[in-house]
Every structure is written in structure tokens, then in C-alpha cells.
Design a protein that fits this description.
By secondary structure, the chain is an alpha/beta fold. The chain has helices at residues 16-30, 75-103, 139-142, 165-174, 176-190, 200-210, 249-257, 276-289, 301-310, 325-332, 345-348, 363-374, 377-394, 397-417; strands at residues 5-11, 34-40, 55-59, 108-114, 130-134, 194-197, 215-216, 236-240, 266-271, 293-297, 313-316, 337-340, 355-358. The protein is globular and about 65 Å long.
């Protein structure tokens, strides 16, 4: 297999997507490929810096909200002007990156997601084969998260079917900046030759959002980093994900509350991001339901591995998670998973082998599975013994790099034939 020159673009925060990208680049470089990365100054540079595994070029990007003098006007007009300025600034940044990539004679672009626009504009400006590694479309624009932003405002007064013309007009203007973002992301997607997704569930999400085909390229976990520490198991469940609605912290709290108080385990939730108001609401919810909740934000990798290894089980309650690395990271640490059968977790969890899946997200349904495990230490111990081997067989990082490598080579061959 020929060695490739791979240009990478990203604008990622800390978290699972950045971890995946770091390991992808590390694996590709170790196989002899030349990888060089580009990112804007807004990307997270502290968490798993790509500069430790390849050359990384950091180009400036000044978004309107970062300027010392804010844009004039308030309300919907300000939102529209801000969105227009964001689009222009991001396009100009990507154009500059593309110029440097073109001068470098690269074989393929491997773009990643963007914290500002989930689907970035970099593919507009490069002529080489272009692959996009996409975790999921912008869920706020395409899903109820938790509400559909495009729904018309509720009518005022009993018996009315539609809101007044004035309310409808104000609501339309209020959403104009989101419609601009949605159009930009849909158009950006069309410039990529290949969209690589992490699950068949994500493939369906891409088709629904963009009307485009995509290819499943499953992820993997670094089993050298995520491994059992040898520490004794403790009486707590662990949740992993940002402290926001879509990660299902509330689901987990309510499920734990159904376990009888005498055997109810503590719930430790670890996140790389949090919202002060949401965090306060979850703590109040847990207190009201008698759940011992501890929220930890931005722990070190060593502490995370220790927490995963010592947990009785992982409680995975994310809403429509596209793939879910967290359950596999828990499995690699010898910890089984109790999850909800929705989203990509249905593709990574084999019930009875590396965890158990609840048929729905009702607290009673999840709680029944928790009680079953807590009442059966032998079964819990068997799952703990088997889950790492099951994970290594199908979800190793080495296998994930091979899948990515094959996808990039196939894309280059397909473009050269055309």
C-alpha cells in the first residue's frame, strides 16, 4: 500500500472526537503516512494536542463574538449580522488553509468537525479528494433537542389555530440566522467526495439531514490507555458525557432512583463540559429523588481510567448518541454497561456479553436491569471478566485505523478513475 500525504482540518473542542482524531493521526503516522494538520485558533490546543503526533498549523480566526467591539443592534438583526460574519470569517480561514494544503501537494483531505459549523467549509476550496469524518449532523438544526426550533409559535387564546401575523413574522425573523446556518452546512456537505460516519445509525442521520450517502467507518479504543487498573470494584455507577440534556443525565438519575434505597449505588457523572444552570438542576433533581450524585468536570485521563475501572457498571443514557465511545472505554477497563437500545449503542453493545440494553428509556425499565445486576453479583462479575475481551475483538484502535486507511485509499482510487 502506497504511503499517503494526508492534510487534516479540524476545529474541535476537548472530548471524544478530539481523542479519536489524535489516535487516527498517531496510527496513520506510525504506518508511514505523512500527516499535517490545520486548525483555527478557536480549536482546543490543550487537550491531546495534534502537535505531539504531526505538524499542526494554527491559522487565525476571529469570530464576531470574539471581537472587542461587538456588532451594533440587538435581537434578530444582530443574530443575522453575527451569523453572516461567522460564515464569512470561517470561509476566509478555510480558503487560507486550502492554499497552504494545495502548495503542500497532498493526496487527500481528511476533514473533521467544527465547533462553530458542524459541517465546515474547507471542502469548497481544495481540489484534492475530500473526506469528512462526521460524528453527527448539527442536531439543533435537524432534531428536537429538546424542541424543534422550526415549529410555529403557539397561538394565543382558546380555539385559535394559528398565531397572529405579527407573532409569525417576528418568529420567522428570529429564526433567520439559524436558517442561514442550516443552508451553509447543507451546502458545505455537498463539496465532500466522501462522508465517513461512525455507525449505521449515523449514516441514516446524514441521509435525513443532508440527503447524501455516507460510508460507515467504525471507531476504536486505545486498549493500552483504557485498561483495568487492578483496583477493587466500588459501589457506584459511572456516567460519561458533557453535562447537557442530550447526554441523558436526568435519565440516569431517575433510573438510579428506582433502586431501593438500601442497595442504591452512588452515581458519579464525568463530563468534559458543563452548564451551570443545568448542573444545578440535575443536582436538585438527584437530591429530590434521594440519589447520591457527584459531578466531575475535566478530570485527567488517569483519573478517568481509574473511575471507569472501579465502577460497578456504566450507566449509558445518552439520547440518540451516534456511536458512543464511552461504553467501549468502560468495557476496555473491565466495566460492563447498562444502556438504552437507541442510537449507535445498539451496534457496539452485545447484550449478555459486554453489557445489557433496556428496551426503552423509562426509569423503571432501566432500573429493573440495574437491580437484576446488583442482585446477581456472579453475573455482574462474569460480564466484567468478558467485556474487555469482547471489546478488543471488534473495537481495537488498530482495526479502526485500518478501516480509515482503506477508506482514504479507496477514495483516492475512485477519484483517479473519474
Amino acid at each position: 500500500m502506497s504511503k499517503l500525504r494526508i492534510a487534516v482540518w479540524h476545529n474541535l473542542p476537548s472530548g471524544g472526537a478530539k481523542r479519536v482524531l489524535w489516535h487516527f493521526i498517531d496510527g496513520l503516522v506510525k504506518r508511514g503516512h505523512y500527516v499535517e494538520a490545520w486548525c483555527p485558533s478557536t480549536a482546543n490546543q490543550k487537550y491531546l494536542s495534534l502537535g505531539t503526533v504531526c505538524r499542526e498549523n494554527i491559522l487565525p480566526l476571529t469570530l464576531p463574538e470574539d471581537k472587542k467591539k461587538p456588532l451594533p443592534m440587538t435581537g434578530w438583526a444582530s443574530d443575522v449580522r453575527t451569523m453572516r460574519a461567522r460564515i464569512i470569517a470561517m470561509r476566509e480561514h478555510c480558503r487560507q488553509c486550502a492554499e497552504q494544503m494545495t502548495a503542500g501537494g497532498f493526496d487527500v483531505l481528511m476533514s473533521n468537525s467544527c465547533a462553530t459549523f458542524i459541517m465546515p467549509s474547507i471542502a469548497r476550496y481544495v481540489k484534492m479528494p475530500k473526506a469528512m469524518i462526521l460524528g453527527e449532523p448539527n442536531r439543533r438544526l435537524f432534531e428536537a433537542l429538546p424542541e424543534v426550533v422550526w415549529a410555529a409559535p403557539a397561538p394565543q387564546g382558546n380555539g385559535q389555530v394559528t398565531a397572529s401575523f405579527g407573532r409569525l413574522l417576528r418568529d420567522t425573523l428570529k429564526l433567520k440566522h439559524l436558517r442561514m446556518q442550516m443552508r451553509e452546512e447543507i451546502e458545505n456537505a455537498k463539496y465532500f467526495d466522501s462522508i465517513l460516519v461512525n455507525s449505521f445509525f449515523s449514516r441514516e442521520s446524514v441521509l435525513r439531514a443532508y440527503g447524501l450517502e455516507s460510508e460507515v467507518c467504525y471507531l476504536g479504543v486505545d486498549t493500552a490507555q483504557f485498561r483495568p487498573t487492578g483496583e477493587a470494584k466500588e459501589n457506584y455507577l459511572i456516567g460519561l458525557g458533557s453535562v447537557h440534556h442530550h447526554k441523558g443525565v436526568d435519565r440516569a438519575i431517575r433510573a438510579v432512583a428506582t433502586v431501593p434505597a438500601a442497595q442504591r449505588p452512588k452515581l458519579i457523572w464525568v463530563g468534559n463540559d458543563s452548564n451551570e444552570q443545568t448542573t444545578r438542576e440535575y443536582r436538585e433533581l438527584a437530591k429530590g429523588l434521594g440519589v447520591d450524585l457527584e459531578i466531575k468536570v475535566m478530570v485527567t485521563d488517569a483519573e478517568l481510567v481509574s473511575l471507569l475501572s472501579r465502577a460497578t457498571a456504566m450507566l449509558y443514557t445518552s439520547r440518540l448518541e451516534p456511536f458512543g465511545l464511552a461504553p467501549l472505554e468502560a468495557n476496555a477497563c473491565g466495566t460492563p454497561v447498562v444502556g438504552v437500545a437507541e442510537g449507535g449503542v445498539r451496534e457496539s453493545m452485545v447484550p449478555g456479553e459486554n453489557g445489557l440494553l433496556a428496551a426503552d428509556a423509562r426509569p423503571e425499565t432501566i432500573g429493573a436491569i440495574l437491580r437484576e445486576l446488583l442482585d446477581n453479583p456472579a453475573r455482574l462479575a462474569a460480564l466484567s471478566r468478558h467485556c474487555r475481551a469482547a471489546m478488543e475483538t471488534r473495537w481495537s484502535m488498530e482495526g479502526a485505523v485500518t478501516r480509515l486507511e482503506d477508506s482514504l485509499n479507496n477514495l483516492i482510487k475512485e477519484k483517479s478513475r473519474k
